[in-house]
Design goal:
The structure holds two protein chains of two kinds. By secondary structure, chain A is mainly alpha-helical. Chain A is 67% helix and 3% strand. In chain A, strands 1-2 form a two-stranded antiparallel sheet. In chain A, strand 1 and strand 2 form a beta hairpin. In chain A, helix 4 packs antiparallel against helix 5, helix 7 packs across helix 11 and helix 9 packs across helix 10. Chain A starts with a strand and ends in a 7-residue tail after the last helix. The N terminus of chain A is likely disordered. Chain B is built from twelve helices and twelve strands. Chain B is an alpha/beta fold. In chain B, strands 6-7-8-3-9-10-12-11 form an eight-stranded mixed β-sheet, with helices on both faces. In chain B, strands 2-1-4-5 form a four-stranded antiparallel β-sheet, with helices on one face. In chain B, a hairpin with a 2-residue loop joins strand 4 and strand 5. The chains are: A mainly alpha, B alpha/beta. The interface between A and B is medium-sized, with 20 and 29 residues.
Amino acid sequence: MNLLVLGKKVRVKVPGRGGWLASFAANPLAIAGAFVVGGLCLVALLAPWVAPYDPQAIDTWHILEAPSSAHLLGTDSLGRDCLSRLIYGSRISLLVGVVSVGIATSIGTVLGALAGFYGRWVDSLIMRLVDIMLCFPTIFLIMAVIAFLQPSIWNIMAVIGLTGWMGVARLVRAEFLSLRQRDFVLAARISGASSLRIAFHHILPNAIAPILVAATLGVGGAILTESALSFLGIGVQPPTPSWGNMLTEGKDNLEIAWWLSVFPGLAILVTVLGYNLLGEGLRDALDPRSREG
Amino acid sequence: MNNNPDLLSVQDIKIEIKTKKGPVYPVRGLSFSLKRGQSLCIVGESGCGKSVTALSVLGLLPKSTFRLIHGKILFDGTDLVKLPENMMRDIRGRRISMVFQDPMTALNPVFSIGEQIREAIVAHGDTHPMTGKTTGTPGLKEWIVELLGLVGIPEPDRRYYSYPHELSGGLRQRAMMAMALACGPDILIADEPTTALDVTIQAQILNLIRQLKQKSGLGLVLITHNLGVVAQIAEKVLVMYAGKAVEEAPVDELFEAPFHPYTKGLMESVPYGLPLGTKRLRSIKGNVPPLDAIPSGCAFQSRCTQSMEICQRKDPPLSSLSPTRKVACHLYTDCAWKKGGARPTVGKP
């Protein structure tokens, strides 16, 4: 939009025009994040077709080979193709990220909504529970729990989910505290809607944007936690490839085979970065207050 | 029906707000009644308890701070004060409905207009009270579109899918009205429905309310501080001051001859089609007393031009002057003028 100010033509950015998608598309970092996440999902879905080798096929004739045209990212100490393992490992990372965040977001949303909507003792109870949960150092809590249970991928997802809902709960509570004061809530009451229906049918859709942002950022965190657990040997168990346990194998041969550590490490870095950029981009696009004017 | 009983009868309600400094009373013994198809206007300045009264009828005062400490609210013979919440929900929307002052915030931004009206209907169960149709049936959408047309929304079939931010203030208020009327209520409470709208839209909305009332025999409680609105819509007027009714009268008689000094004051502060410059508008001096400092005796005494000694001692009760008119002022109690007080001047302000 061009405005004439003191004889000069000034370009004025009109905020809010074109909706959040346009605002999202105008942010190059967010687009980059979307591409990383999208590409990763594609690779994970199409793993059997994109991977050049079987990720678990042992080839004792080609042990610890440096990256070459036959093995683009080299081979490990059992002669398995690094690239294929990385590709199959992305499935684990995505699965753990999405499922555990799904669990965390569901719990957090329901508890946060109840706390924010009902207030009073319900609020106090749930928020104190949040405070208590936040007191535990998460990684040690997870390690302790996994020590009791079998270290399987399902247990990992459940535990990461059950220890990661507090942030979402606080967020949703804050949204509900402000939304429940709005007139449309009273209007819904006047048309005879019950409390639960108002909370989850009328108010919750208004709080979707921040929940979506928190969930996206949460996926990155969950992937990181899973990698850490697998690296420590209490996550996904070999021979199933995961980026974390690939790093463990890599560290044993760090002096002679740098590619075993570098590529899984880079994969984790790029993926988590991608999710964070996507999350931040969504936040900027969905929340007009943080949008640059 | 000749022996038309009162559909809604509010009897001597008193509402308490708990504050840190102690309880205050925004409504202090208010009574009024409404017959089926009648329209009642509640008039008064900001902060005199109009909206609190409206919400108390629907049982929607926030329980943490507000408490109805005295009185009955009889609707169709049942006392709403004692009704359990789940039965009250059945009355809200279906029997008594409400529209608000600000159509900007009263619609949920994430649902389309049509969905919201559907929601208001679905909230009351599977079958629709007016059509008897199951809410899942395709006929419901057509019915909602028809309703949108009825409240004067152009292109209702397209507007069904519009979101609140795509509509103008007037259209939103119409949509609110459609939502309030969706379940065919007996009483519509309108809390300053035109205050947030510009003047031309105000007139349209008032016309709409009047038409709807004639068509459907809707009882109307209109809350306003705009005497122009009162003159257009009301049959009966209740003037409120500091949580109490100070005057109750049929609309024609009230405009012909206001009795209470406060009503007179209100009328003198509004220009009635007078040519410019022929009369100075007068304002009522002072403000409504804050809730925690309502004086003993008559609450209006400090602003009243005709206040007497008795006004400081005794709060005048609302008493009948004629079969149709009630007023709460010492100027009209026998004892006041028998003992040498000024006889009230009845006539135009």
